[in-house]
Amino acid sequence: MSRKKTEWFEVEEGEKVEDCLERMAAAGYTVAGRREEPLFQEVDGEVIPVRQVIQFKGILKES
């Protein structure tokens, strides 16, 4: 089975950035980029920030 050469890994809620990076390495990927974006929620007509979504772009390591 062929794996994707690039894949995005998201830091899950309650997970540390280091844990996500370890998960990437265990899957055979190295970090090639990072992106962040805020996650908002509307409460009583007011938009409030909930958390920051962090994703890492992983490139498959050569065997």
From TrEMBL:
It comes from the Bacteria. InterPro entries: NETI (IPR025930). It holds the Pfam family NETI. This is NETI protein.
